[in-house]
Each structure stands twice: as C-alpha cells, then as structure tokens.
Write a structure and sequence with these properties.
There is one protein chain. The chain is an alpha+beta fold. The chain has one domain: NusG, N-terminal domain (Alpha-Beta Plaits, 2-Layer Sandwich). The protein is 17% helix and 41% strand. The strands form 3 sheets. The protein has a 5-stranded mixed sheet with strand order 9-8-12-11-10, with helices on one face. A hairpin with a 2-residue loop joins strand 11 and strand 12. The radius of gyration is 18 Å and the shape is elongated. 21% of the residues are buried.
Length: 174
Amino acid sequence: MRYYTIQVKTRSELKFMRFYRVLYHNKPLNLYFPRKEIPQRRLGVMTNKVRAVLPGYIFIELPEENSIAEYYWELRRTPGFFRFLVSNRDIQPLAGKELEMVLYLLKAVGPVAGISKASFDENSRIVVLEGPLKGFEGRIIKVDKRKGRARVQLDLYNESHWIDLAFQTIARSS
C-alpha cells in the first residue's frame, strides 16, 4: 500500500470525505482523517472533545497497482480540496519515518486517539504506560501536567507539525 496526503479546508475534512463518497461512489478510495480525544476545561467543567490531529490534512491509501493519477481530477473537483502534498505537480507518497508515524496514527491508534496513561519518573520525565503517546516519548517536546497534554513533534514532507495529545497521570506502584 502507498499513502498520500492532501490538504483540504480546515474543519471541513469530514465534509470533504462525504462529498467525495457521494460524488464518486463508483471510484471508492480509502480516505483517513485521524482525530484525538482531548480534555477541555470550559467554565470550570471538564469535558472530552474530539479534535483533528492534523487539521486540514487527509490521508489516502492506495494499493500498489493503482496510481494516484487515476483519482487526480476526482479529488481536485471535490469541494474543499486545496492541494496534494508536496504539490499538485509533484505528488509524492509518504515514505520512511513519516510513513511509520502516519501508519501508527491510522492503524494502531484507530480513528480517534484516546487518552494515554502516563506516570512521571523521579526526574519528572513522562513515562507513557499505554495509549497513543506510547512510542512517541522521544518526540515529546512539552508536557503540561495541569491540562494533561503532551506536545509531540511530527515531521511530514519536510515540515514540522506540533500536535497535542492527552494523557492521564497514573500513580506508579512501588
């Protein structure tokens, strides 16, 4: 399988996917839009909200035998489409570490990344016990204990993106 990335109108990702499926139901395509569950405090009340992991980006899964050129005009004509990555003239599939990260977000985590369980060691470093942050410890650049969020750096097509993922602190048993 090969994976490509397209940029669409931010906060209209699900709408874009619905439009594509309705307009081109005869050319099915696997479209993925990873989301995360994140706690949010509003007026002193904590609620869990579902937000985009990478706002404005949708990932396309294609079998090796298919070419992105077969879907080029259908995707471009779908309302809300902005561009292919790297560009409309230089469409490149994800590869290497970028592909590993995206596959982890799409397959291992699922459609909505839940809240990770973590603890802190004696040096106040975060130790992820389970959840979507597991394996990202080396990419965590900031931890906000009060909000229960960890900022992770993702690199996509030579651009760095910061995403916040939620964690819940668990006391370590000695």
